Amino acid sequence: MIRVVIVDDDPMVRTGLRLLTEREREVAIEVAKGSSNPEIATDLSVSVATVKANITRVFAKLGTGSRVNVANRARDAGLL
Length: 80
Known about the structure:
The chain is mainly alpha-helical.
C-alpha cells in the first residue's frame, strides 16, 4: 500500500486562518493586536454587534474560544 502525505507549508492553511472571510480575518488581526470590541468596531466602521458576530464565527472556524489563541495563530501566520 502506498501512502501519500500532502504537506502544506502555507501558514494561513496551517493555522486555519485560510478558513476565514476577509472581514473575519480583519477582525482576527484586530483581536490579535489587543483591540477591544468597541475599538474594532470604530476601526472597521461597523457596529459592536457585528464585531461580536465576527468574533463568534472566527472562534467557531478556528475551534477556539480564546482571543489569545487567535492572536497566536495570527502571529504564526505572519499577519502581525
